[in-house]
Amino acid sequence: MKVALIVHQDNVFPELQLWWHGNEVWGTLDNFIGMIIVFRLSELIHDYSDKIDVIFTSYEEIDLGGAKRIAKNLDKDVLPIVVDVANVKGDWDCALENIYKFSNKEIKDMKEMIESHLNLKCNTRKYTGKPDDEDDSWAFIKEKRKVLTYTIPVRGELHTTDCNITLNGIEKATQGLKWLLSYFLTEESKTGR
After folding, report:
1. What ranges in 18-58 are assigned the alpha helix state H?
2. Residue 81 neighbours by CB under 8 Å, 6+ apart
3. C-alpha distance from residue 107 to each of 101, 125, 137 (Å)
4. What is the 8-class DSSP label of residue 20?
5. Separation CA 151–CA 82 (nearest Å)
6. What is the pLDDT along the chain (193 residues), one digit of tens a residue?
7. b/e map 65-88, b = 16+ CB within 10 Å
């Protein structure tokens, strides 16, 4: 299976504001942290360059314009996985959200793979259509495409500079995305798909 990581590079401010202090990164993390985590997987992406594409989009914070263009033109045999951030509500390390056109078994298998290999807490939530849940995956859902969002938890006010994530949180989210990709890339996971 071929996968495309869809990562929006825009944020709500005209310029990026970040600072790294001790064990935390603070600033406009939506969606800079998503980009960092994808870049941290560059070796895996290189090793599977025939199976993983990375597409950076713009206008997620406005009208999903970048994702809309990609959703209309991305080959139908490529699975889009949106990478984004969300405020932490509860205790979790990563989440699979806006899950669309996946079976309950697939969702359970993805969650178990991440949790059992990494000892992480991974939330799951199917697509609901609630406006608060909107992200780039909605552009693919509108095109009736199988899609999910890999969500990285951050703390604080999402669209302000008072938003943060620990270095450990970055590591956990990186490893979670790595295992999610391996779910789609390994031979054993392709059985029955």
Report:
1. 29-40, 42-47
2. 3, 4, 5, 6, 147, 148, 149, 150, 180, 181
3. 10, 9, 16
4. E
5. 8
6. 899 999 988 766 666 788 999 999 999 888 889 999 999 999 999 999 999 999 999 877 778 778 999 999 999 999 999 999 999 888 899 999 999 999 999 999 999 999 999 999 999 999 999 988 889 999 999 999 999 999 999 999 888 888 999 999 999 999 999 999 999 998 545 544 4
7. ebbbebbeebeeebbbbbbbbbeb
Residues 6 or more apart in contact with residue 145 via CB below 8 angstroms: 71, 74, 76, 80, 100, 101
pTM for the predicted model, two decimal places = 0.92
**Alpha carbons 157 and 128: distance in angstroms, whole number:** 23
| Gap between the Cα atoms of 63 and 31, Å rounded | 15
Pull the structure tokens for residue 82. 């949106």
3-state secondary structure of 157: coil
